[in-house]
Amino acid sequence: MKNLKALAFDIDGTITDDRRILCLDAVKAIREVESKGIITIVATGNVLPVAYTISEFIGSSGPIIAENGGVIFFKDVFERIILGNRKKCLRLIKILEKEGIKVERTLTDMCRLSEVTLLRNVPVEIIHSIMAKYGIDDLTVVDTKFAIHITEARVNKGVALRVIMEKLGLKPSEVAYIGDSENDVGAFSVVEYSVALANAPDWVKKRAKYTTKRSYGEGFVEALRILGIL
Predict the structure, then answer these.
(1) Nearest CA to 44 among 19, 74, 13, 80?
(2) Which of 38, 69, 125, 202 could tie 157 with a disulfide, CB 3.0–4.6 Å?
(3) Would you call 21 helix, strand, or coil by DSSP?
(4) Residues 6+ positions from 225 with CB-CB distance below 8 Å
(5) What is the DSSP letter of 119?
(6) In total, how many domains does the chain have?
(7) Which residue out of 10, 109, 143, 180 is catalytically annotated?
(8) Domain with 168 in it: what CATH number?
(9) Strand runs (DSSP E) across the chain, as ranges?
(10) Cβ within 8 Å of residue 132, ≥6 positions away
C-alpha cells in the first residue's frame, strides 16, 4: 500500500501482550514506520494522560484517540476535543446500583472525561440485560478484556478517527488501522486498510480486511508487513 500516509493502532493487546507489557519489536517497528514519513496515531480505551505518555515514549508523532474515541488530542497544536458525555454514562451506574449490582470503578476512571470504566467483576451480559430493562439505547457497554467501558453509543474510535482524517486532509485510502478488540471495529469501517490480530474475537476478524497469524505485538509487526510498510 504505497499510498499510505497514516497508520492508526490500538495499544492494549495490539502492541502489548495480554499482561499489557509493551512488545519492543512493535515499538521498533513503529519508529521505522515514522522514519518513512508515515504519521502514526495511537487509538486506545485508556485515558489521555496515559495515551499521551505512551505515544511519546514509543515515538508516535500523530494525534491521539483516547477513551475509545471520546477524547481526541492534537499534539502539534495542543488541542483537546471531547466527543463523549461522561454524565450520561454515570446515569447507568446509578441504575446498576439501584438494581443491586455492585460495580467497582477502575483506577483511571477518576481521570476520564467522556466515559466510565469498571473492573471486570460483573459479567457484561448482566449490564446489557439491565440496559434493555430500562430501555437504554444511547449507551454502549464493551468488555475489552482489560476493563468494561460505558460509552455513548454515538462515540467510538471510528468517529474520532474520521475527525482526525478530516482535519489532516486524509482519505480512507491513505489510512490503515490495526486492532484486536470489539472497540476497534468502528475504526475498521472508516479506513480502506484494516487488520485484526490473531488474538481478536472471530467476529472482529470478519470485520477487518486482513488478519494476522500471530498475536499481540508479534501480530502487529506481521500486520505492518501485510500492509507493505515494513
Answers:
(1) 13
(2) 69
(3) coil
(4) none
(5) -
(6) 2
(7) 10
(8) 3.40.50.1000
(9) 6-9, 39-43, 64-66, 71-74, 79-82, 116-118, 139-143, 148-152, 175-179, 193-196, 210-211
(10) none
Cβ-count burial 12-24 (b if 16+ within 10 Å, e if not): bbbbbbeeeeebe
**Known catalytic residue: 143?**
no
Q: Residue 70 belongs to what domain range?
A: 6-83+155-227
Q: What CATH number corresponds to the domain at position 136?
A: 3.90.1070.10
> Tell me: the pLDDT tens digits for 202-229?
999 999 999 999 999 999 999 999 999 9
Give 15-22's long-range contacts (Cβ < 8 A, gap of 24+). 15/58, 15/217, 15/220, 16/216, 16/217, 17/216, 17/217, 18/145, 18/199, 18/216, 20/146, 22/54, 22/58, 22/217
pLDDT grade, residue 139 (50/70/90)?
very high
| Statement to judge: residues 133 and 116 lie in one domain | yes
